[in-house]
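Quick check before the chapter quiz. The format below is the same one you will see on the exam, so make sure you can read both the input and the output lines.
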Amino acid sequence: MKFDDEPLVPGENLPVRPGHDSPGRLERVLRAGAFVVTAEIAPPDSADPEEVYARAALFDGYVDAINATDGSGAHCHMSSVGMCSLLTRRGYAMVMQVSARDRNRIAIQGDVLGASAMGVSSILCLTGDSVGVGDHPEAKPVFDLDCMSMLNMVRDMRDKEHFLSGRKITSPPRVFLGAAANPFGPPLDYRPLRLAKKVAAGAQFVQTQYCFDIEIFRNYMSVIRDMGIHEKVFMLVGVGPLASAKSAEWIRSNVPGVHIPDHIIRRLAGADNQKDEGVNVCVDMTQQIKEIEGVHGVHIMAFKQEHRVAEIVTRSGVLAGRELWRPGIARDVDPATH
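Here is the expected output.
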C-alpha cells in the first residue's frame, strides 16, 4: 500500500500520480491519506435511467465513490454495469461490484474491459450469495471463479496485460481492485487469515460487512496490525442505520454474516423514535471506527434509508471539512479520471 508523498489539500484537484493503478477518484483520495466515505446505491427494478440519477443525487457532496451492487442477496435488479454506464457519464466515481455467482471467466473479463473503457476505475470482486437465498432459486449458479481467483485474474489483466487464457490485451484495464471482508463471522480467528489471502490475490481496498460490535472489530484490527495487513490494503468499514429493533432482530436471524449485539437491539427498543436512534447508532459507530488505527474510511449501507446518508456523514464529522466532488463542480469533472 503506497501513500502519495504530497498530502491532500482541501479544495484542490487530486492528480493521478506515479504508482497509481487507476485514474479513479477513490484511489486518489485514499492514497492522499484522507478518511474516505463510500456508499451503496440501491439498483432499481426498472429500465428508467432517471431513477438511477435520482438515487445517486442523494449522495452528492457526501461520498467519494458509489458502489453499484450486482444482484446482492441473489435478487434481480438493474445490473451493476448498467448503473455504472449511466453514472460515470455524469462524473460519479463508481465501484462496480462483480459477483462470480452469475458469470464465467469469459463474461467477467469482457465486463472488466468494457467497464474500464467507460470510466469505471474501481472493481469489487465478490463470490456472491447462493441463488437459493434470492427470488430466483431455480436459477443455475455459475461460480466458475471465486473472489480470490477473480482478483488474481483481473490483476493479471491489468499488470501482465493478458487474459486468463494467455492472449495479449492491447490496452489493459486501469482498475483499483477491492474485496469484501467479514470480521464478525465465526470462527473469528480465521477472519484475518482470509483477508490476508484476498490481499495476496490482489485486493487493494476492502469493504467490510456491517460493524455493530466495536469490540469485536477492535480485536480484529489488532490482529490485522500484528500481521502487517493494514500496511498492504485500505480498510473501509461497513456501517448503516437500522430501522427498528424488530428489523435488527430479523436481519440478525436471516442475513448471513451480520452480527448485531443484544445491547444495540435494546438501545433501539428503548428509543421513542427507533428509526432516529438507528441513525444515532450509525453516527456513534462511525466516529468510533474513525479512531481505530489502520482504518481508512467507512462504507455506508443505508438500505431504504439512503436519504439519511448526508445526515450520517455530516453529524459524524468524518470529512473534517473536506469538500467532496459533486455534479456542478468545475474541477475534476473529466469522466476518464473517475
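If your answer matched, good. The chain has one domain: 25-242+292-327.
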